[in-house]
Amino acid sequence: MRNRFKNPNISIMIIGVPKEIKNNENRVALTPAGATELVKRGHQVFIQHTAGEGSGFTDDAYTAAGAAILPTIEDVYAIAEMIIKVKEPIEPEYKLIKEGQLLFTYFHFASYEPLTKAMVESKSVCLAYETVEKADRSLPLLVPMSEVAGRMAVQKGANYLEKPLKGRGILLGGVPGVLPAKVLILGGGIVGTQAAWMAAGLGADVVIMDVSLQRMRYLADVMPANVRTMMSNEYNVRNLIKSADLIIGAVLIPGAKAPHLITRDMLADMRPGVVLVDVAVDQGGCIETCKPTTHENPTYIIDDVVHYCVANMPGAVPYTSTLALTNATLPYAIQIAERGWKKAAQLNPELVPGLNIIHGDIVYKAVAEAFDMDYVPVEKYLVD
Ligand SMILES: NC(=O)C1=CN([C@@H]2O[C@H](COP(=O)(O)OP(=O)(O)OC[C@H]3O[C@@H](n4cnc5c(N)ncnc54)[C@H](O)[C@@H]3O)[C@@H](O)[C@H]2O)C=CC1
Ligand SMILES: CC(=O)C(=O)O
Ligand SMILES: [Mg+2]
Question: Which residues form the active site (predicted)?
């Protein structure tokens, strides 16, 4: 990084934005508006050719914003000090990552050991969107995508409940004279709340389960009458799954592997054609039989139960998701570009829990614990 102008505390950075290569991932990590903000501060922004296309942004729009277009993903990784992405690096990208390079993106390490090991070996600095955390414990860079995924979970669930798609053949809202469907939501955080609004709006009979009484008190206050809350425990889950039509998994323990609230044996208690949408799949899933699927091939069936487990749901609605995501990420990207990751984290404590792997050390405890690997407290890297 070079110092900018006459202020020795402010640096300029070379920033690279690759095109996402995960299945049907159409989001991009920086919009032309974001590029404008970074370029105006003296940073150099390099965008891979057509990276913004899926979200409606042409190469010309980035060039007009002062960014440069590079033809290949290799070019972007080769030049950048900071890579800003949306999804975790996929295997072909591992070898492109340079020692000391900063990667600012979603990682969801605890769900995928090969990625964790590859990033340890790369000796890069991995700052994960999903664990950046505010003092009130909220996750500002996860929230916007959870809002999207929560809303989508109901759309997808309603769709897969249709008989030709192997669902029970029930309409979420019912019709006059016919009862609505029952929707069970595991976890009443951002995903769960958004899903509840959507399902309730369609007229379904909704139950949200959580372990936080405080959260359920809040939900009971703000939700309409067709949404009720219930304590999440094995006994209650076993009871409610017997009559549910659509079950949405939305549990999170930040950074950690999700607990299995629905185990393999419980599928036998469900009715044929029940749909499970496990949004928590990116942290390993809260339904034991859930394994990651793609937008191309989103569902599979076990014991007549339809499983939808797409790990990048918002990627399917990039016109909404790219704007929602970058609204949240850009202010942090600017701080990191201006100061470098270390100084930025020293100045803004919200960035500290975002640091997951630094120069080969796992510095986020839940990630190290997920794979029984060594943990190094992040403070080691934050002292001057
Ligand atoms: N598949 C996809 O495309 C996407 C997945 N996600 C994922 O969705 C998951 C949920 O995210 P958010 O709603 O933002 O998290 P959040 O932190 O807002 O909510 C999680 C909720 O789970 C509750 N919880 C914890 N343990 C529980 C238990 N044993 N039983 C019931 N509830 C429990 C917490 O009290 C909290 O209210 C995360 O894994 C997130 O990464 C988010 C966006 C997109
Ligand atoms: C949160 C996440 O993993 C996504 O938006 O794809
Ligand atoms: Mg059955």
Answer: 108 (proton donor/acceptor), 282 (proton donor/acceptor)
CATH code of the domain made up of 145-316: 3.40.50.720
Q: What's the confidence (pLDDT) of residue 10? A: 77
- Closest CA to ligand 2's atom 6: 312
DSSP letters spanning 123-164 = T-EEEEGGG---TTS--TTTHHHHHHHHHHHHHHHHHHTSGG
Token duo for residue 88: 């975790």
What ipTM was estimated for this complex?
0.98
**Mean pLDDT within 14-31:** 97
Instruction: Report whether pLDDT(22) > 80.
Output: yes
Strands (E), the chain: 2-4, 7-12, 14-17, 44-48, 68-70, 82-84, 102-105, 125-128, 182-186, 205-210, 227-231, 246-249, 275-278, 299-302, 305-308, 355-358, 361-362
Please tell me the pTM assigned to this model. 0.96
Which protein residues touch ligand 1 with a CB less than 6 Å away?
A: 130, 142, 145-146, 149, 186-192, 209-212, 215, 232, 250-253, 259, 261, 279-283, 310-314
Of 245, 278, 282, 361, which is the active-site residue?
Answer: 282
Atom of ligand 2 nearest to the CA of 146: 1
pLDDT of 229 strictly over 60: yes
**Tokens, residue 227:** 């949404």
321 is an annotated ligand-binding site residue: no
For the stretch 39-74, pLDDT in tens is 999 999 999 999 999 999 999 999 999 999 999 999
Catalytic, 260? Answer no
Indicate whether 3 pLDDT > 70: no
Structure confidence by residue, pLDDT tens digits, 235-266? 999 999 999 999 999 999 999 999 999 999 99
2-138+318-381 and 145-316, same CATH topology: yes
User: HSE on the CB side for 99, CA within 13 Å?
Assistant: 2
pLDDT at 4: 54
Active site residue 282: yes
Pocket residues: Cβ below 6 A from ligand 2 = 87, 106, 108, 142, 145, 282, 312, 314
User: 295: CA distance to ligand 2 center in Å?
Assistant: 13
Closest ligand 2 atom to Cα of 25: 6
Domain boundaries, the chain: 2-138+318-381, 145-316
* Predicted pLDDT of residue 9: 73
